[in-house]
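User:
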Amino acid sequence: MATDHETIFTLEATPVKFGPGASQDAGWELKRLGVKRAMLVTDPGVAALGHPGRIKKLIEAEGIDVVVYDRSRVEPTIDSFQDACDFALEHEVDGFVSVGGGSSMDTAKVANLILSHPAPVMAYVNPPVGEGRKPPGPLKPHLAIPTTSGTGSEATTVAVLDIPDLKLKTGISHRYMRASQAIVDPELTRTLGPEVTSSAGLDVVCHAAESFLSRPYDTRPAPDSPDDRPPYQGSNPVADVWSAKALELGGKYLRRAVEDPDDIEARGYMMLGATMAGVGFGSAGVHIPHSIAYPVAGLKHEYQPAGYPTDHKFVPHGHSVIVSAPASFRFTYEAMPERHHHVAELLAGEAIPTAGPDTLPDLLRQLMQDVGAPRGIAEFGYTEDDVPALVEGALKQQRLLVIAPREPSADDLRHIINASMTNW
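Assistant: Predicted structure:
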């Protein structure tokens, strides 16, 4: 039956192998994927912990050559992506393994994209910043092994990058960029400090909440062709299941995971929650908090986060997202009150009979305080004078904003950003 509105949603998920010790299977998985010469992507901090070296030996034991790229930048830039792409092309690899956080996994995704279908990185960057070119075919095998419990990049089709010359963050997204296989091993998070655990875990909560509270898929206009169906489709019955469980796990385990690195149960469930949220928002999408997070992270580089590498100043992604989440969800509340109530109850782990428009924002602020998050956007070096530039940067993220259940105007974004300068 002909209709002007979408009637179809899609759900794709990375095959995931989960459990303590699962990283022992890295060599077996790459061999199963047919890789003969792999590029192992990691960052200097993770490399120093020894995980990539151990995994390299496991892969080599299966007769696979490994070349190590350990220059992945935490919060990647277009130049750091290009450096990894050049390395992949120079070493003529036929597969990838990423060991690290979202930055390393995203770096591997983009290196794989450019190796498989050579072009300047900017050609694939989402419009209007880049050309938004679509890869013409599948990429080479990629085994993703996260060492943090947050980004969910092992389960998504997106790579995020900073473009310093334009003072903004943006992304590259396509279904072919999803990893071929993920190994999620909670043992790898023992070495993760509380600050990184906090930021990454708050990213899990935001991913899940934004996707659950996104515009329903069947309220979008129908695409002209299947190729025009966006990666972020809006909330749907299957994505809701993944996002809801991730919210439940985040509310129950994030505080414990930050408190004790040896609480493998808590850290394991946060890793599982990150992957589940990745599946959920990989289908439904994220919106206002992430739209604001990109200019927050891209316009200024004055903040030196505790517990992170000190070679450059940056705002960790999870912190850039969470600071505007309370005000964002206060704004979207009127579009779907019952779903906001449900998100609040999932985070709280109990029924809240008297839930109202401030219930979810208040729960998020309390969680932020409990895990040592920054108080607000002002803590990153921003003032009221920066609000117009932050609004302009957020408005450039139209692929995200169209997923919001209540689409914000420039004035709405200004109000949300002002309210997020200090959360308590």
